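Exercise: predict the fold of this chain.
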Amino acid sequence: MSKRTKSPTKRPLKGSRANKSQRTPSKISHTPRIPGTAQSARGRRGELRKHLDERLQVLYHRTMVIENELRKLDENRFYRVCIFGSARIKQDTKQYAEVFSLARYFGWEGIDVLTGGGPGLMEAANKGARLGREEKQTRSLSYGLSIQLEFEPEPNRHIDIKRHHHKFSSRLDDFIRLSHSVVCTPGGIGTLLEFFFVWQLIQVKHATPRPIVLLEKKFWEGVLDWMRDVPLARGLIGEKDFSNIHIVDTPEEVFEIISTHHREFRARSGAVQESA
């Protein structure tokens, strides 16, 4: 009988050979690769991006042409003051009565009044401007730049010229383009936005220098104090940025500042405007 030969015991592999044999096979994709697909996608995105850039350039130039034409039609002919204020303030309040009286003074002098066209202090301004015009038989107009809001379904009824906006950004641009001075009365986030928007455009010379008059010291002093105590103290703005800001307590003080600027505008530009 032949002796049975024992098979040699297999020893575990060491090193890289062991690692290779014990690896889990990777998943195989059954989706065939199409040569040049990734490059083609990048090419299409590049073409779309280029097309979008070209269209935006065309729209920008078209907008600038229209804006320049509008400015030529209106420049140096009429003087307008823009009055910002809350839509929430009611007729039986001191603030409503003051804004109404202020706009009435502007109507007497033949100064156009521009507002957001809504209720509250905007209504007070448009209403006062119309009454002042009728009392002194001037040619001032009451403007309203309205915007669709759930709580402001319709513009107030004291407006001679209306323009409706779908976006706040275009509305803000029109406020600047159409006005020569600004009065900010008490208001909320919208009024603060309008105030800072005008102030910043004057700072960077995207708008001509003009008076910004803040009515009611108690309401506005805290805002200006913070601007001086924090941004100015840290060197984020300059002292000269405050040169156009006036803070007063009465409609008569506001009127004196705007009336002086109006007379300077007429003397400088030769603008023809009827006044009392």
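Check your answer against the key: Confidence is low (pLDDT under 50) at residues 272-276.
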